[in-house]
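Help! Submission page says 'invalid entity' but I think these are all valid:
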Amino acid sequence: MYIIAHSYSLLNKNPKISCKYLYIINKVVRVAEEDMYKGYRGAAKKKLKELGVKVWSDVIIKSTRGIFKGVILPRAETEDDQHIVLKLHNGYNVGIKINSIKSAREVGYKKGHYKIPESEFPRSSEKPNVTLFGTGGTIASRLDYRTGAVIPAFSPGELYGAVPELAGICNLKTEKLYGIFSENMGPEQYITTAKAIGKEIESGVDGIIIGHGTDTMHHTGAILSFMVQKPPVPIVLVGSQRSSDRPSSDAALNLINSTRAAAYCDIAEVIVCMFGPTSDQYNLLHRGTRVRKMHSSYRSTFRTIGDIPLGIVTSTEFKYLRKDYNKRRKDRDVTIDTAFEEKVAIVYYYPNMMPDMIESLIDHKYKGIVIAGTGLGHVNKPLYKPLKRAIDEGIAVYMTVQTLWGYVQMYVYDTGRDLLKIGVVPAENMLPEVAYMKLSWALGHTSNLEEVKKIMLTPIAGEITEREPHNGYIILQGGIPEVDEFVGKYMR
Amino acid sequence: MSKELTDNEEYYRKLGLKCGLEIHQQLKTEKKLFCRCKALLHNDDPSAVILRHMRPTLSELGEYDGTALMEFKTKKNVIYQLYDDTVCTYEMDDTPPFRLNQQALDIALEVALLHNCSIVDEIHISRKQYLDGSIPTGFQRTGIIGIDGWIPYKNRKIRIIQLGLEEDACREVSDVGHKIIFKTDRLSIPLVEVVTYPDIRTPAEAGEVANFIGRLLRSTGKVRRGLGSVRQDVNVSIGGGTRVELKGIPKLQYIAKAVANEARRQKALLDIRDELRLRGITKGTFQSEYQNVTSIFKNSGCKRFKEVIKNKGKIYGIVLRVFAGIFDKPTQPGKTFGDEVAGRVRVIACQDVMPNIVYSNHFEEFSLSSEEINQLEKLFNVKSTDVIVLAWGDEADVKTAVSEIKIRAVDATSGVPSETRQVFPDGTNDFERILPGPNRMYPDTDSPPTPILEEHLEHIRKALPERIWDCEKRLEKLGLTEPLVKSLSISRNLKVFDKIVEKLDVNPILVAVTLEEKLKWLRRKGKNVDLISDESLYQLFEMLNENKFSKEAIPTILEFLVDNPNKTVKKAIAELDIKSMSIEELQRVVDEALTRYSNPKKISSPFKITMGEVMKIARNRMDGKLVAEVVETKLRTFIDG
């Protein structure tokens, strides 16, 4: 996950390796000495062998460009095989081209350290008990200076070492469910997580935190809202937009605020707790079914869409912005319902979309289609025929809007009315990703389209609201003098 | 400070002075280093602000870096001011970096080659941690371009450790209490960092070498000018001392004095250490106690304490055993060891209203009553060999202050603490932060490595400007004075100078004076001399060579060209109505002037009057010296005849 996320950078270097694999690499390095050419391949590896040096060798390299002294570092596997990475003694890294090297002499050996400080997490019976589930990556992590690899801190002791403020909030228990990037989350992980939550609730925990990569946090927020119904305690999803090894990271504050929310806040729902503004000020609590990641890199990326957030968490208090949330309870009742149909797709409509897009879903035996249509919920005429065929063949077809804000209102224009007639079901103001998760979940229960429709259109966790408040859509337009003046009065 | 004090090689050799430089120079690029914002500075109001905090991150060995921890102790609210056109989400640390600016990289490569560095094959960007808030990410992105270079100095070489390319930090607007404000416009403007080995032997040399490197950088014509575009850090230590970094010396002239003062300060701190040792105080035997003493001053007549108590602040006292007199030992001109301690309290405990501490022997000056002093002494069971130090303010800050007083006192038992110190115009310095350890560097996982291909490097190597030391020798040989050599060798007009001198038969001194001094004169008059093209400058001397006007006309013509940048020299001469003049015409004009005298012998100063008359016609058309010669000859004949 991204809180997390040194793994993110490693992923950049090699999108194909999974986080899990990275941990394995770390472990292997920790225990095995034989990985002498870590990350080097082809010509570069051959050159290292020829020179009689290896990773972690302290060397003096003579090249056509000069003399370089330093420690040979592992190289990211996706980089070319033409350079050797050297950590100079001043801490900087440089790359030396292998065919410029005239000679290399090993003068020492300095192996990288892989250790995270750990101190015992202070417990007391007066503090609430909170369980933190890890889904991948690290809540807090430390970069290995020599390799750029990430060492995850995850055990309570390690987390306490990195974010000592946690000890003042709760008794923390951690459990690593799996280690993957958030884009690799899927039904298997959703089901495991939902079941794990059920078990923790049963065992009496006061709140649950789920450390999660931010990319698909809102997808997970949605599905957990359906799989874990009426929980008695808060289930808080949290991540970070800036990795936790940087001084300016949002990870620590996110973790502190989400831990406070899990331990003390009154909202017993699946919620996302992330930065409100980009400034280090407060976090927002978003309902799991109405939240969406809206910027690829901003800290304040998560926004409640078409409604207002549930609340604000500052360093000293909770401000509840609405009253219609499920309250925290003492009982341990919760419904864990992990049904999931995998053959469901989102079709993001664009002008000139060809019928074969829909045909291919039918041919591949998809059971549900969520369309993100234009405007009030439209697609072009050429799609009518394949959509009709889909519905005739028993596929559930639902309409959402790609504008994200607003309701599907298909009776306004002819196109909408035509689609209604074909049997496309308007999904009210469900967000496309939420409708996708809900349809997968509904189809997991039944393939009877009427039953599915009943499930789909009956709100379970705020995914459909009866009304959109006037302040549910405020996207201030920068550049307008009065907007800039108004916004200028506040920290962003 | 006399030259002797800064330039006495023997004295500083005995003192064991070690001194190296870190020169930071902004590059003249259109855009910033890691984003596409314009590299421009603002003086108007910001369009938005954001608030951030900095948290120390664990070091390689699972420990917090000393500086990082210190900055965390300050618990600062860091405010960043944003601007519309020069700051984007990158500077806000809300977007990862874009690819390295190629223009900046090419300039850095040029600079590295000029410093005779070995160029790396692949640049890896690193993160250098800064928790003072000066960079919103908490680290500076920086990369090594070259290592192990040298520059000639006197009869030896000053070796270069490394040449780095990095992003500039924010500009500090204010730092009061727990709130520090930065302008982000300067952030990420590309700069090169030249780091020398400690090959400098005296304070005076430090200034000279800095000046030399500055000139070498400017000789590329691709670096920024103006206030703040170049900043010098100087690393100083003496035998038995510790490396101290004197930070951000804004003017070359301050360097020698700053280094000499620092050497003196380190000597004073070593003397204090020896004194403490004589008293039997070491890190192990050091003793201190502190207490909240606010109640003693409940009804104090001391104005400062009244205010503290009114604001619900606290007053703490700490006794340092066997430290009597140490706080009054001089360390720098006008400063004592007490100032060392106060500086640390100012920065780390955010107690920036001075004085921020007061200690034994100074209580009366601070308007404490003898009863209050007695109570204090009784409370701490003070002996005459001890010293009490008082600090005040918000309770959390006072606790930090007291702990810092203790830390600094303990440090005194081992000599010179490793610090970054801020230099003032008077050459003295004060605590800025603890010198960062080696653990603050780590790879920037957001940036891929950038290879420097041989062909590209070769291309830059071929286009390198003449080395400034070669250029200076060449200009000296042409007979130029030293100021002209210094000015022209880093001038943008060097190219056109070379062309004029090579192709035309003109006096190089006249050309140099015109290009450097005359143009500067115009610039000082507020004229934008950059509007004059190299072509016009060449033409100017070409026409002078053809006697189309006299050299006296040059300033007039230059001024015309600045005001009419689209007009040629020929046009200038025509419009200024400067006509060429032959010797015959001159003689005729002189003759005519002379005929006006009925009795020349009666005139008091005939030469002056005649010259005046003749120059009315010959000005700008004929060399004044020649006119004088003709007038003098003719006048003599006229009078004698």
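Support: the input was valid. A stray whitespace character was the problem, and the output above is from the cleaned input. Chain A is about 30% helix and 20% strand.
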